[in-house]
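Interim report, section 4.2 (structural modelling).
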Amino acid sequence: RKEVEQDPGPFNVPEGATVAFNCTYSNSASQSFFWYRQDCRKEPKLLMSVYSSGNEDGRFTAQLNRASQYISLLIRDSKLSDSATYLCVVNPLYNTDKLIFGTGTRLQVFP
Amino acid sequence: EPEVTQTPSHQVTQMGQEVILRCVPISNHLYFYWYRQILGQKVEFLVSFYNNEISEKSEIFDDQFSVERPDGSNFTLKIRSTKLEDSAMYFCAINDMEEAFFGQGTRLTVV
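Predicted structure of the assembly:
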């Protein structure tokens, strides 16, 4: 089983749509969880950290389900500028700060 | 958001040559990381560096790779004898408040 698994997509959605991405992780001891955004041939940029209680930042909502080892990202009212690859990222253990990346889910928002 | 600057943005080198990739964080940080991303693949951890020492490294980070902080500001990744499969984007990152921020990357092309 992959350490961090995501549906690669692409997800093609119209402007204004709501879209959800899921991610599963294999290590139940994982400590920290993040969503990053990556534009083509650019660096990953932190979108949001994911907390156990769930968190929201504007149109973006992230949730964590530790029991199912599952993380989600919901984007409401999609904009053309949301088109990118969304990376699920996990810090797998308490005594390490390396990050494990998923392969990413590609989102394409069309007019 | 902390800034990390990498140079060069693109490096083309012949197989067997040595390359040095540079990273300069704008503000003072103690933790540095190198990640790489082969075209079309996921971002992979290479090495973490704390207090002028390697704190963790991956299987990818073999004897051909080395890191150092020669002058207290620059953080470098050296590949001693490049192989074709070293062609990738190399990202430097810093950790700030348990969140990782990436430089814009160096695209290394080995020919």
